[in-house]
Specification:
single chain, about 160 residues, mainly alpha, about 75% helix, globular
Length: about 160
């Protein structure tokens, strides 16, 4: 895997997490940790957007968002997820004009837990889950490539 590329094992990592394949998930986690979690935040963001969009539909009612956040918080009480921040993050999936701010650790906790709840409760077959995660992976890889291209263009312009 070239330096800076997106690790394809992220797909299996999330799939095994959702399917409760604990031993395989831990093995994949250890492999990714050894290689570094390069690109994980971008991939997780893409999974979050895709999972939440599919779970709640294109224009969810406020009550549906509140209920979903309550489900996430009930599933993961140890994560101490701020409901107000979570609801704003969920709303931002559907309305990019909605601004929210939180520390990266809270963002990652919320994205992972919300994605888990949305995917676990989505009734996806193994094939459907894999396709969804592959779509998120491709979107994340494209976003990283565009980001790296913009950085390269900026450094060339600075030369």
């Amino acid at each position: 895997m070239p330096d800076g590329s997106l690790d394809p094992r992220f797909i299996d990592y999330v799939a095994t997490l959702v399917r409760h394949e604990k031993e395989r998930n831990k093995q994949i986690e250890d492999e990714i940790a050894a290689a570094g979690w390069v690109g994980w935040p971008v991939f997780l963001t893409m999974v979050f957007f895709e999972a939440v969009d599919r779970k709640l539909g294109p224009e969810p009612a406020d009550a549906a968002i509140v209920r979903f956040v309550a489900d996430v918080r009930a599933e993961f009480p140890e994560m101490d997820i701020d409901a107000t921040v979570a609801e704003r993050m969920i709303r931002s999936v559907f309305d990019p004009r909605i601004a929210w701010a939180t520390d990266p650790a809270m963002r990652a906790r919320l994205q992972l837990s919300a994605s888990y709840v949305a995917l676990r409760g989505g009734g996806y077959s193994d094939e459907e889950l894999t396709r969804l995660l592959e779509e998120a992976w491709r979107a994340a890889a494209q976003a990283r490539a565009e980001e790296e291209g913009a950085q390269d263009a900026g450094s060339t312009a600075d030369s």
